Amino acid sequence: MQATLLPLTPSLSLYKSQSSLSSSSSSSSSIFNPSFSSSSFPSSWKLPLVSSSSSSKLISLTPLHSSNHLQTKATTTAAADSSSESSSLFKALELGILFCLWFSFNIYFNIYNKQVLKVYHLPVTLTAVQFAIGTLLIGFMWGLNLYKRPKLTSSQLLAIFPLALVHTLGNLFTNMSLGKVAVSFTHTVKSMEPFFSVLLSSMFLGEMPTAWVVFSLVPIAGGVALASATEASFNWVGFLSAMASNLTNQSRNVLSKKLMVNKEESVDNITLFSIITVMSFFLSLPLAIFMEGVKFTPAYIQSAGLDVQQVYIRSLLAALCFHAYQQVAYMILERVSPVTHSVANCLKRVIVIVSSVIFFQTPVSPINALGTGIALSGVFLYSRVTRIKPKTD
Fold it and tell me: At the top level of its lineage, which domain of life is listed (predicted)?
């Protein structure tokens, strides 16, 4: 097996070596503000001219109580406003951290994953390894009660199984594409996901797109075609694998709508993702053994002339980043609207493309860059004119 690899750092190579913010709330005491009527006053207080000392005290106390009440009310309002501002600031900071983690995990997943796939040409096995690591993490969280273990009914499992199947195929096709073409080109082709989303939704759900949605698909398709025609690493296996990934990932959208369990039996996004990950592992493992055999052993990797330790380390890091970025994506989706999530997903794809071009020093012609830019502009436009929930992979 002969392949070249640009290491993440100059000192690392996959080949054998030859030489969380807290906020606080303010509390305030309430003031009793009695309401006096004329009938409750002593008769001496009802005289037109009040000259007694007791009457003077009454006259002077009344504005004092009113002033204290107003001051206390103002203090309570200010404290509530301050608490509200602190809570909003905390939520904004938390959301910003989640977005940074989402982008960072995605970038590192693509880098580590591409490094391994360039020398270890077994994408089905690597996909199974990634689902295996995710399953171990989920089992760890459930075992230590870090996250509530779900109790699923048979109807829920039957509804989730098709989602797990297309999820498995979508990630498998993505890895197949990353193993054949540049990371930047794979993600450029994957920017056509909105096209498949609209097509499948109209065919199986009867959701006809608006004129603006159709208009936004034109630059997406045109940009991908232009980028493909000038892509230096282009080959049909990599291109078709990326397109198949689009088809399967967007099929997950359609299936989630058609095969959704009853509302009273529904599960939250994080639990759904966890169940899908576990199911995907059990689906991908026999597929990997059948198609590629058991070839992730130290003996096989060493016989291929690779550094066993580095292959294992980078495969593990890729799997951890793979699980982490999808988990964070679902956490974000619970906090923002689908449109906001879609815009962020478009920005994430831009960052991944640019970072991979810089890291792997991918040759990019001006026409290729123009095509990629047009396609991503179309994706951004699409995210603004539709309410279809985006995908996160």
Answer: Eukaryota
